[in-house]
Amino acid sequence: MNLTRRIVTSSRPAITKATWLEVKATFVHDIVSAIVEDEIPDELILNVDQTPSKFVPTDNVTMAEKSSKHVSRNESSDKRGITVTLAETLSGQILLVKEELDLPETQKALLVWHAFKAQSTDKVLSELERLNINVVAVPKNMAHLLQPLDLTTNGSVKKMEKRGFSDYFTSTITETLEKDPQRDVTTIEVDLKLSTLKPIHAKLLMSIYEFLQGEKGRKIILNGWKAAGITEAVESARKGRIPTLDPFMR
C-alpha cells in the first residue's frame, strides 16, 4: 500500500489571492477607521482568540496516501487538554487579568476576534457596546491569514507546550535509568494520567504567560500584528493616510 505517516490537519476552503486581498483590505480598513474615529490607543486594540492547549501532543498523526494533501480528524477522545483564551494588544502585551489603564471609563476599545455564532449574538454584542468596545470580526476561513494571534503567538505557545512535554518525558526516563542503569528503556512507563499532568500543564502555562510578558514574547506578539498588515495601516492612518478599500491601488 502506498501509505505514509501524516499529520492530521483542519480543512479550509481554497482562497484565491484576489479574494484574500479584497477581504484583507476591507478588514484592515474597518479596524483603522474605528481606531481613528475613536482615537483608540494601542493598549486598547485587542485580539482575542481561543486555542486548544494540549500538554500531551498525541492523536494528531495517522496513515494516509502519499499523494493526499489534507488528512481530516474524525474524532478525538484525548481529554488531556484545555482551551486557553489569549488576549494580546497592538502594543505587544498579553493582558493581565482585570488590568486597569489610566484612562477614562468612556474610552473606546477595539476588539478583533472570530465571528462564530457564540460570539456574535445580540446579547454579546450589546454587552460589548455597553462597555464601549467596538468589534471587528476576523473574516471567516481567513484567521490563519489575518488574525495576529494565529500568525505568531498561538504557534509559539504550542511549540513551548511540545517542548515542555518532551522535557517531562525525557526527565522521567533519565531519572529511572539513573536509579536502575540496567533497565531496558523500552519498558519504562511515563505517567500520563490526567491527575499527574494537570499540575505540570498548569505550571507550564504560567511559564508561557511569563515568557509572553517578556521582551522576546513582546516581539512575537508585535510580529503577528505586522504580519496581518494592521500595524503599518494604523501607523499610516494616524498620519492621515487611511488605507483604501481597493487592494489593487497604492
What's the average pLDDT? 84
Order of helices and strands: EHEEEEHEHHHHH
Helical residue percent band: 40-55%
- Largest sheet, strands/sense/barrel: 4 strands, mixed
Strand content: 15-25%
CATH class: Alpha Beta
How far the N terminus sits from the C terminus, by CA atoms, comes to: 52 Å
Flag low-confidence runs.
Answer: none
Radius of gyration: 22 Å
Q: What is the CATH fold-level name? A: Nucleotidyltransferase, domain 5
The total strand number stands at 6
CATH architecture tag? 2-Layer Sandwich
Give the arrangement of secondary structure elements.
Blueprint: E1 3-7, H1 17-38, E2 45-54, E3 61-65, E4 81-89, E5 109-114, H2 122-130, E6 133-138, H3 143-146, H4 148-179, H5 194-213, H6 215-227, H7 230-237
Parallel strand pairs: 2-5, 5-6
Antiparallel strand pairs: 1-3, 2-4
Helix pairs in contact: 1-7, 4-5, 4-6
What does it look like?
The chain has a single domain (16-60, 76-239), classed as 2-Layer Sandwich (Nucleotidyltransferase, domain 5), CATH 3.30.420. It has seven helices and six strands, in the order E-H-E-E-E-E-H-E-H-H-H-H-H. The chain is of the alpha/beta class and 250 residues long. 43% of the residues lie in helices and 16% in strands. The model has no long low-confidence stretch (mean pLDDT 84). Helix 1 (17-38) crosses helix 7, helix 4 crosses helix 5 (194-213) and helix 4 packs antiparallel against helix 6 (215-227). The chain is elongated. The longest helix is centred in the middle third of the chain and has 32 residues, at 148-179. The strands form two sheets. A four-stranded mixed sheet has the order 4-2-5-6. The protein has a two-stranded antiparallel sheet with strand order 1-3. It has helices at residues 17-38, 122-130, 143-146, 148-179, 194-213, 215-227, 230-237; strands at 3-7, 45-54, 61-65, 81-89, 109-114, 133-138.
